[in-house]
Amino acid sequence: MTMPIAPMIIRGEVIADNLVEVGGRGGDLTFLTPDAHHYIDRLPLGNPARLADLYDLTFDDILAFAQALGERLDLETNEHLQQACELSYLTAPTTPPLVRNSYAGLRHMLDREAIVEAVESTVGIRHLEEWVPQTLIDGTRLEVRCFGARTLHIVAGNAPGLSLLTIIRNMVLRSDAIIKSPSNDPFTALAIARTMIDMAPDHPLTRHLSVAYWRGGDTAFEERLYQPGNLEKIVAWGGFASMKHVTRYIQPGLELISLDPKRSASIIGADAFADESSMREAALRVASDIGALNQKGCVCARVVYVQSGTDDDGLERINRFGGYVHEALMGLPNSLSTPAKAYDRNLKSHVDALRLDDEWYKVIGGRDGEGAIIVSQLPEPVSFATILDDRTANLVPVDTLDEVMDAVDAYTQTVGIYPEQLKDELKDRLPLYGAQRIVSLGYAAAMKWAAPQDAIEPLRRMGKWISNQIASPETTAAPWLRPPVA
Question: 3-state class of 314 per DSSP?
């Protein structure tokens, strides 16, 4: 078999020279890619005035480009996507049905109305198109506009859509983007960029996208690239170690926008046990939040707090509920969830050890790596809660919802809640402890980029917000006319 090549894209040019051999994460695929050291002087945009061609475009022009790109990102007809999808079966942390479903859905992210909705609800289209004026109470006229920036994106590889989301955000902001492809998804951004080149090689949006792969932690390379003369912003997704590594390069003139790893949880209120129908519904919804993307997303539930009570009757309720959750988990469609690609051995050893401790834990499933539900018999999560993965979740019984608050902190991203009316009791409390997103149970993976992410608005942060202050002595008190201090 010929070793696949992941070329480098530099602003419309496909480069496949000076190749070096690298391995995808997990060791399932070795591929060739240009040695980034040979192109370190070409990757940065250089003169920021080169962003000017993006401002010859109207927002309608950008939308038209996005719509045309979406029509071409059809997995059934796009050879670049087909090749990337096939190769990603080996590098992705998820299984082929999930990878294929993700690729098939890319085109829908470029829906014109969805882009308009997301941009209008965050940045505001008008701020991207013109100087937006207002008059302040002291008579000063103020104009504000959002400009694009020279940006490096260190993209996560747990979902192909993240690469396209990055490209969309840069298009609407009129930014110049360098995407560092992740080792577990080195092909998606390339496939999209090559489609853009095939479609419109000289278009400004095509000419302001670069995609490259280099080993993370290559200090000699990064110290040259990660400089304020080359970049204004770094948008980094990644684990704790990689985020700590990136921070070493941050200095005045170079901003870090951190989309770092989070954990998510679910809360099941007492009303879920009102009747059999409610229990079944809650079980299906929480199974969806556990199983989506095979639990590879930060949004996926890992620990589920269940207001079942902790007495004997309460434990009987949560144990029965755990059986329903496992049953629902096993029945999820393979477009949403499948048995793990490779069940984590360390995790499995922990789960198997708990089977011997049936006084404190009840383990349902998990013998064949298909996923497991661990039902605590006391109101505490398992000691290895932070490594729960591969459709393995922990149900924890509680008597009151106050007990849940101690488990919520700054690492908590998404909290799925059932029933819906319970949100009214919790939505003003959870953020005080650190929760960043509250969602109806079952919809954790249905993220909306019109909404904030990780308690920030990335699109707003990725732009440069510039003010023009207009004042004269006739409208605004002049500093030089202030009377002297006695």
Answer: helix
DSSP state of 438: E
Position 104 pLDDT exceeds 90 = yes
Q: Identify any residues that bridge with 152 across adjacent strands, giving them in sequence order.
A: 178, 234
φ/ψ of 353, rounded to 5, equals -65, -35
- What is residue 116's predicted lDDT score, i.e. its pLDDT? 98
Q: What is the pTM of this model?
A: 0.94
According to the model, what pLDDT value does residue 364 have?
97
Say how far residue 390 (Cα) sits from the centre of its chain: 18
Take residue 13 and report the two structure tokens written for it: 């040019």
- Say how far apart CA 178 and CA 174 lie, in whole Å: 13
As given in the structure block, the two tokens for residue 372 are 């497991």
Domains assigned to the chain: 8-260+454-469 (3.40.605.10), 264-440 (3.40.309.10)
For helices 79-91 and 96-104, give the axis angle rounded to 10 degrees.
Answer: 150
Q: Over 90: is that where the pLDDT of 28 sits?
A: no
Determine the Cα–Cα distance for residues 89 and 73; give it in Å rounded to an integer: 18
> How many residues comprise the chain?
486
* Sign, CA torsion 38/43/48/51: positive
